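Design request, tokens follow.
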């Protein structure tokens, strides 16, 4: 299927003259900088943050490109993946005219962001074992369907989607296909970034918030064609990634070994937690997990959730979510946290 990104784009974004920031025009490090109305004396903090950061995060993208096996020009960095989700709506979806396809149960921000941007949502539920329904998805789409959001591994169900179904949709869906891989580091599934050169309609999202343990810094990645990344760069706020985040993540990337160690530990704790949960008679179902959480079904999940809170154990109540009736989503913690959870869980369920 031929794919023309510009025909998908909102007309005014195609015409948009982006803001050019001071540091776009001169990228050198040497010189006397009297261009950006900064404070020349430094900062009130120990480290200096008085200068605006690199708007395109070039040094950071060079390093991310190496570990992700993509080109720096295929990377967009956002203030969390949530910024990339919002920018996609703003770039491609005309309020009151276009629509997006969402696949519940899934990550809530796709819907919230659509509502913020006043964009029609068409929902096609997953199957009861949380897989895609490709034919129904295509049947729900029309010429105004701009984006299909696929979350794999999926939040909150924790499973990965069948690769052949995603590939089929990449071939057939008329708009952009976003594959949100926030939890990919906890799965044995290879990333869809390997498919970028084959599918110009693909955008893969990942984040530093989960496996890398950097949720507070807010750094999300989107990988796509150079043309698509240029569009996101054109409409983003000029300095969307702080200098502190850029520096910190640049240093963190050098310590990939530590990340791999943490992932291994989380996976091992996930296995232990699952084993312990399987032994509990009141646990009705533990959904297979490719993520750093387990979706667990228990009778009267709402009451269990409230009782756990009284024990100061906070899990995510998914009991009202489609196909997740009576389910709680439990993030894998440290050994001590998981043990405390298990103790409280048995207390409130017995
Ligand atoms: C599937 C999914 N995508 C994206 C995000 C948000 O990521 P970020 O912290 O990069 O905004 C989350 C957070 O829970 C998530 O579950």
């Amino acid at each position: 299927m031929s794919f023309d990104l510009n025909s998908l784009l909102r007309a005014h974004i195609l015409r948009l003259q982006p803001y050019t920031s001071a540091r776009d025009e001169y990228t050198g490090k040497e010189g006397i900088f009297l261009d950006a109305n900064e404070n020349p004396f430094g900062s009130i903090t120990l480290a200096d943050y008085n200068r605006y950061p690199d708007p395109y995060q070039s040094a950071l993208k060079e390093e991310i490109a190496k570990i992700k096996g993509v080109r720096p020009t295929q990377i967009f960095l956002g203030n969390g993946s949530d910024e990339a989700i919002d920018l996609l709506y703003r770039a491609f979806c005309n309020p009151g005219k276009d629509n997006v396809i969402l696949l519940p149960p899934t990550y809530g921000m796709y819907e919230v962001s659509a509502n913020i941007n006043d964009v029609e949502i068409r929902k096609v539920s997953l199957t009861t074992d949380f897989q895609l329904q490709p034919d129904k998805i295509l049947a729900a789409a029309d010429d105004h369907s701009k984006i299909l959001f696929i979350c794999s591994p999926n939040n909150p169900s924790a499973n990965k989607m069948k690769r052949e179904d995603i590939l089929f949709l990449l071939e057939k869906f008329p708009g952009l296909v976003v594959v949100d891989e926030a939890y990919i580091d906890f799965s044995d599934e290879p990333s869809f970034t390997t498919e970028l050169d084959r599918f110009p309609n693909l955008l893969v999202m990942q984040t530093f918030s989960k496996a890398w343990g950097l949720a507070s810094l807010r750094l999300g990645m989107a990988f796509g064609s150079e043309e698509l990344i240029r569009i996101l760069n054109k409409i983003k706020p000029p300095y969307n990634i702080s200098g502190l985040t850029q520096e910190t993540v640049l240093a963190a990337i050098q310590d990939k070994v530590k990340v791999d160690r943490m992932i291994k530990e989380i996976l091992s704790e996930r296995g232990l937690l699952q084993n312990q949960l399987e032994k509990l008679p009141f646990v009705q179902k533990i959904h297979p997990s490719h993520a750093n959480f387990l979706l667990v079904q228990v009778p009267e999940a709402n009451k269990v959730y409230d009782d756990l809170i009284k024990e100061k154990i906070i899990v995510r109540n998914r009991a009202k979510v489609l196909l997740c009736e009576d389910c709680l989503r439990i993030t894998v913690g440290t050994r001590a946290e998981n043990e405390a959870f298990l103790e409280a869980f048995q207390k409130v369920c017995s």
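Comment from the thread starter after seeing the answer: thanks! The CA atoms of residues 24 and 55 lie 7 Å apart.
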